[in-house]
## 1
Amino acid sequence: MVDGVLDDVDRKILAELTRDGRQSVTSVAERVHISRAHAYSRIARLTEDGVLTRFTAIIDPAKAGLRSSAYVTLKVRQHSWRELREALRRIPEIHHIALVGGDFDVILLVRAEDNVGLRRVIFDQLQSMPGVLDTQTFLVFEDLDTR
């Protein structure tokens, strides 16, 4: 990476780690066609620079017992985002939070065991939060992870 710009080697390393974050540095090096030491130093730099923020597992929500999912949009009171963001982070059923521009302010991916759990999060938790003016819910019928 030069002046904050990723080069082809960095992009290939990131693609490999996105495909399989559990693979060894040796495996990444072989697939990217660089030495192990070079791969190790690149991964360390990408981590130090905050490009790689964490390594995680991607689960199949239905197989993990999370059979109900919805995207929930929020319209929020102006200047309430910082406090709201922290409150949203504490709800385990929320798997993704994005502050966006457009007809609404925030979009959430909510996953629950069933519709009862989904309803509880939306009606009992989200709609009662100070700063939330309106919600709209879009049920997910099928998930496709493209990574």
Note: Helices lie at 8-19, 25-32, 36-48, 81-89, 115-126.
## 2
Amino acid sequence: MISLNKFKKSFTAFVLILTLAFVGIATNSQIAIADPATTPETPTAAEVFSANCAGCHINGSNIIRRGKNLKQKALKKYGMDSIDNISNLVANGKGIMPAYKNRLSEQQIIDVSAYVLSQAETDWK
């Protein structure tokens, strides 16, 4: 006859194995082979901006520090009126602005920097 203590240990091990198996199945079910016909397109610069920057810089403003906005006058004032300078800021962050070099590709950083400049030229309209 099996003791209650052995039964509890066996049952706990069974539940743990079952849980790990379930997690493995759930995780693997979300992995798919890339199919060019169904692979999502690379996000546009506007989409990258919307997803990563607009939280603080909606319509080129700055909800944290009003003077440090993305309007053309402020970009020129702070020397952020080139793709290189904006890209460096986006990649490395500064002050309370986080760095995005580990979240965005180099091309996305360049694209979103060009997007910021083009939007500033039209006053974010």
Note: The CA atoms of residues 4 and 104 lie 55 Å apart.
## 3
Amino acid sequence: MYRHTQFSWAIMAILAWVASFLILATWLLGYNVMVLVFAIILAILCCTFYALTIEVNKEKRTLSWWFGPGVAKKTLNFEDITEIKGVTNSFRHGVGMRITNDGWVYSASGFSAIEVSLPDGMKYRLGTNDQANLLSALSEKIASAD
């Protein structure tokens, strides 16, 4: 079984930047309910998107990924995958979880990723800083896709 967790330093940097405005608002406005609510939302985002984990379970023949403690978890059976290849994301793919012209993107930080294609045309780009080992763990599926 392959499992790799990548810390979301890019997401944490963005949230820290937003938190600096929260500190400024607290200094200028004093403590009020809206500042407290925004601080709670920011803390929830930090706890939710602190890392992206990708798991390949060869016994169950599944590929799974999720953010933080299991948020937005997605699992695909090997039989449902038509193609897997290494790709490089660009700035337009961003970080976090989003839909683009290339399909769904799940990325913690950096540009290295794998692209997983399904029979219905849906594609998932999974960001990873361990692309070679992830592709190696999926080598059985890559070979059977040809």
Note: The beta strands are 2-7, 51-57, 62-67, 71-77, 83-88, 96-100, 103-107, 112-117, 123-127.
